[in-house]
Amino acid sequence: MKTYDISKLKDNLTAEIGRMATSAAKPVSLLILLGTESPDAEYYADSLVKKGKKLGIPAKIERYSGKAGFDSVIKKIDRDPSVSAIALSPYPADLDFRHVSSGMPLNKDADCSGYRLAGSLFWGFTDIAPATAKSVFLIASEFFGGDMSGKHAVICGRSVRVGKPLVPLLLSINATVTICHSKTADIASLTKAADCVICAIGRPGFFKRGHFSPGQLVIDVGINKTETGFTGDVDTGDIEDSDITLTPVKNGVGTLTSLLIYKNLLDLLHLQE
Ligand SMILES: NC(=O)c1ccc[n+]([C@@H]2O[C@H](COP(=O)([O-])OP(=O)(O)OC[C@H]3O[C@@H](n4cnc5c(N)ncnc54)[C@H](OP(=O)(O)O)[C@@H]3O)[C@@H](O)[C@H]2O)c1
User: Fold this and answer.
1) Pocket test for ligand 1, best of 91, 100, 181 (most atoms within 8 A of CB)
2) What mean pLDDT is predicted for residues 207-224?
3) How far apart are CA 199 and CA 208, in angstroms?
């Protein structure tokens, strides 16, 4: 098994964000909305703030409570020119996603949580996408040299922030795309036939040697909390001596995801002119 090295993508993205932030017509900032008290959500929001600091883009956390709190915070931010964009990361578990999605202002939606931006992505009008899906896309695109003509990508998981938005992204580089979910029969027969397998189902170690074939790129999106720490959806022990290229959990998809929230923020600025 080879471990995919994302350092070139990470360095290029960091440099591009730096250039874009410096040449922006006005100072930029991110507001992270936190609507839950879970320690994991707090940790994620704090790490996003730290990432912003490293990139020279100030970020702060705003807490809200329930639907009314969410609505009033969104209303305030929509009118506040000092907030360039909002990230709802992680998504608030206590709110109906349909409500959150329809409330997100199109031009300040740094993680593409609103259906307006997602619709533009599906129509091919924008390449601003949920940061995790974009991260997977960049890795696949780099691995296949920017064109997946004749290549088959099998996405496991159909969530709005990973699986579904990956469909238009991968189609944009000519991949043939299959999407699987919990009701798909015989997932292994589909994943084995792919050139690229994207594992995003949130089940630690679900994907084993029998799911893969030699030469494949396997992108492990899963970050699953277990008794022994965070693990991906792929059972790395089971595929150790196989001829597969796998993205690691640490220094993998998640590393680019947080950078891409800031990249999205900068890409959204032209919608605010
Ligand atoms: N690295 C990052 O930056 C990042 C960001 C976001 C999420 N994640 C991680 O990625 C994983 C997925 O996150 P998510 O938010 O997309 O999860 P999610 O919203 O819970 O969606 C999980 C998807 O997996 C499918 N699924 C579940 N069990 C399955 C099975 N046994 N066989 C086939 N499909 C199955 C579900 O199918 P149904 O639709 O049929 O229920 C669903 O479509 C999690 O581990 C999460 O922590 C990582």
Assistant:
1) 181
2) 98
3) 11
| pLDDT confidence tier of residue 40, bands split at 50, 70 and 90 | confident
Is the model's pLDDT at 119 over the cut of 80? yes
pLDDT at 41: 87
Task: Return d(Cα 132, Cα 208) in angstroms, integer.
Answer: 23
Nearest CA to ligand 1 atom 1: 254
Between 95 and 160, where is the model more confident? 160
User: What's the rounded Cα separation, in Å, for the pair 55 and 152?
Assistant: 35
Q: Which residue has the tokens 């533009």?
A: 120
Q: How many whole angstroms separate alpha carbon 197 and alpha carbon 187? A: 11
Q: Which domains occur in the chain, in start order?
A: 27-108 (3.40.50.10860), 131-255 (3.40.50.720)
Q: Express each pLDDT in 157-211 by its tens digit.
A: 999 999 999 999 999 999 999 999 999 999 999 999 999 999 999 999 999 999 9
Residue to substitute in 206, 223, 235 for testing ligand 1 pocket (most ligand atoms within 8 angstroms of CB): 223
Q: Which helix (H) or strand (E) holds 61?
A: strand 59-63
Ligand 1 neighbours (beta carbon < 6 A): 132, 156-159, 161-163, 180-184, 187, 200-203, 221-224, 253-254, 257
pTM above 0.70, yes or no: yes
Q: State in Å: Cα 202 to ligand 1 middle.
A: 4
